[in-house]
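DUF3558 domain-containing protein
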Amino acid sequence: MPRIPVAAAVVALLVLTGCGGDDDPAADAPAATSEPSAAPSDPEPTASPSPGGDDTGLAALDPCAMVDAAGLASLGLTGGEAKEVGDARVCRHRLEGPTLDESFTVSIELFDGLGAADIVATDVQPLPPVGTHEAVTFTGTTGGCVVSLAVTATSRLDATAVGGDPALACDHAAALAALAEPALP
């Protein structure tokens, strides 16, 4: 029986669409970058969309507060280190599996000034929507699997999983994206 029925369904759907990446991961690189982003404001766990399509709602989010403790525990995630890496505000968690192939660094990365059209990757593949957000998957600059949710034309959330087996990385990235999505504007 799955621990998270909704996340399991999303993961199963994503496995059917495929995701991969065999490059070596780099520990401190965000999934993709191309332009500078807006500086974050005071973080809050959730925000509502702003009229006019600006990114104030996303800028108000704290990437480490988007998934509650029960959600993180259901995925086996520990830690929750907040960082700014390149153009992203990042919250990194660790999943320690029984083997190296089952161990990952899993992150939520918020890009306040970069949308889905700004992804720098050659293997971007569309996914079914996650909640109300359009989704794509690609291999990030770290070599891990990324599930990216479009928030506006100029902002997005990337859920990444780096390390271990690439197919399992995509499962973990998809599950984290599904849990973080309800906090998005």
